[in-house]
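call fold(seq) -> tokens
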Amino acid sequence: MKLQAGKLLPLALTAALLAGCASDDIQEIEAGYDEDAGAGPMAMAHVSHVATEWAETPDQQGLLTTARAEAAVVRTHADLAAQRATDSDWVKMHAIHVRHALAPQGVGPGKGYGLLKAVEGVKTHMTLAMEQDDVSDAIEFHGEQVVMSADSVLMRAQQLSALVDKIINAPRYTDLSAEAAQMVALSEQILMGEDLNEDGDIGWEENEPGLNQALKYVNYLRQKEAAYKED
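ret:
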């Protein structure tokens, strides 16, 4: 985690980080921020690319918004594949649609940008925000959560991509029902995350978070920055 020259993390924030962030509730960790140290324009520009606008995406929407839209298409077609899982042609057709939403080639469903590219963009721009000289405590803290969420999503998206290739390349009339079920599970985890340690919570570490958690952390970050400006 990068800090500005001569700047120390507030004690409460340091304690939260050392504890592994037992709670994601912004109200519970709010006291750990430097209330007079909102982010400057360079850091916030990268946050905006993640949250609200990026010139390269369809309709110039934020990278996270685009990632979630592509993930919704992935889930839709995974669900459709599972509805007729014993029909290999049907499963293959929807696997092709899933692949297009992950990494578009030609024409197909979705935004035409690709889940993988969008999530890579989320990770890149949030990392850049954290590296700027005018970074804030809120960006440093929640930015790390967003980056780790992006890594978790990318891991599952890459697993899904390999699974889709396996389905598409399988001989016709192969029983693909198990693979269809795996597509559904991965598509759900990409959006919703997964409670891997079975503690009843989806945290921001250990490859648990999905895009929903990334959105939550971005919203926490933006709420805190808005509060800085109101003070």
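The chain has one domain: 39-230.
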